[in-house]
Amino acid sequence: MDSSPNPGVTVVLGSQWGDEGKGKLVDILAYEADVCARCAGGNNAGHTIVVGKGEEKKKFDFHLLPSGLMNPKCTAFIGSGVVVHVPSLFAELENLEKKGLPCESRLFVSDRAHLVFDFHQIVDGLKEVELGGSSIGTTRKGIGPAYSSKASRSGLRVHHLYDPEVFAAKFRTLVEGRIKRYGHFEYDTEAEIERYKVYAERLRPHITDGVNFLQVALAEKKRVLVEGANALMLDLDYGTYPFVTSSSTAIGGVCTGLGIPPKKIGKTIGVVKAYTTRVGGGPFPTEQLNATGEMMQEVGAEYGTTTGRRRRCGWLDLVVLKYSHSINGYDTLNLTKLDVLDGLKEIEVAVAYELNGKEIPGFPADLDLLAQVTVKYVTLPGWNTDISNITSWDALPETCKAYVEFIEKFVGVPVEWIGVGPARESMITKTLP
Ligand code: GDP
């Protein structure tokens, strides 16, 4: 028997409001992984992987599938905590295949995962309209309504697809319930039931007992890489509720979403953008509604992969990062998009929040309080030079290193990788202390 220690599961999590550029790190780490997994969320997430530069440049978009599939030797696992819109799953597979990345034979889906249906997407839109001015800004992919069905114990799981009578009965009840709640909407329930008979057959070879699947993989010392979707500040419990997603995007969601014990987690990596962005509503203390924010939007190409929406931009908020670390317990950090700050003479970093002239501990739960905080900043010198072609830590300008070291010291976590451009190659590895 192989007595070498099990490397455990490596987890990559977004530490802010998402879109930190997790995809690139996952893509790099996937080349040392045997299984890449998603544990929560649905096709509301989005990772963009850019391979090559200039004419050779190719872009791969991932929504429901883990981007670790970029490694042709990696097997993908969709865990029980994920909600799956089957037609979108197939569309994503077909799209990747068209780009020369066949994935279908490498995909496994937990039979406990819940299903997202088109009517969930309709309801998502109706709910947002109902909320009017205080809408959440969801991607309208039906993710929230599908998790609502799950939490109210009326949802349908993957395994239900293989008992057609039970599926049809539960499906009808579910749609009727939504119509009762939201009023009449156009939806052909019976046609959908028929369509799902076809989807079920196509999905059949990919279905697995998720708990058993990972238990076997870990016993065989397979290296498992978990790709967090969304990010800590969008976590249902710890994010800026109600402007959050409907699942556990924090470290706890890894265990519940995959069905693995916490002790199996070997390393947790937090991905941090060198500034802050967020999509949708809710207070955002370091937001810059000025030329600096616009520069971040333009230089950082801050438009959503899933929705194309312009992201709100602001200074790096270390109050958020520290809060995020206290929940997720990062072993190391990946600082991304540092090159976006290249043109700045000075850079501000948020280090504390004050309310009524007094510094407050942590990150407030109450968004009304969050909207009232005054942000305390530290101003650091910028490097005012192009770092996008730099390939080593030593070659970075001193002021740039000082920015990275300030973050490390403040949060108490070493930075292991630094992103200096969109391409896979534009990532500096920093030696750990
Ligand atoms: P994710 O969901 O966290 O993976 O983030 P997105 O995919 O929405 O956004 C990442 C975007 O930023 C992609 O277009 C990447 O190519 C790009 N990106 C990732 N890292 C860097 C970086 O270090 N510098 C720059 N300029 N762009 C980056």
Number of helices in the DSSP assignment: 12
Major sheet attributes: 10 strands, mixed
Strand composition percent: 15-25%
Q: Indicate the percent of residues in helices.
A: 25-40%
Number of DSSP-assigned strands: 20
Q: What's the overall geometry?
A: globular
Q: Calculate the mean pLDDT score and round it.
A: 92
Q: What ligand species are in this complex?
A: guanosine-5'-diphosphate
Strand order in space, largest sheet: 9-7-5-2-10-1-11-15-19-20
What Rg, in angstroms, do the CA atoms define?
Answer: 22 Å
**Unreliable runs, pLDDT <50, ≥5 residues?**
none
Secondary-structure class = alpha/beta
* N/C terminus separation: 34 Å
Describe the structure.
This protein is α/β, with parallel strands linked by helices and about 425 residues long. The protein has helices at about 20-30, 85-100, 120-130, 145-150, 165-180, 190-205, 210-220, 250-260, 290-300, 320-330, 365-370, 400-410, and strands at about 10-15, 35-40, 45-50, 60, 75-80, 85, 105-110, 115, 205-210, 225, 265-275, 275-280, 310-315, 315, 330-335, 345-355, 360, 375-380, 415-420, 425-430. Strands 9-7-5-2-10-1-11-15-19-20 form a 10-stranded mixed sheet, with helices on both faces. Strands 14, 16, 17 and 18 form a 4-stranded mixed sheet that branches. A two-stranded antiparallel sheet has the order 3-4. Strand 16 and strand 17 (about 360) form a beta hairpin. Helix 3 crosses helix 4 and helix 5 (about 165-180) packs across helix 6. The longest helix has 19 residues, at about 165-180. The radius of gyration is 22 Å and the shape is globular. The two termini are about 35 Å apart. Guanosine-5'-diphosphate binds near residues 14, 23 and 337.
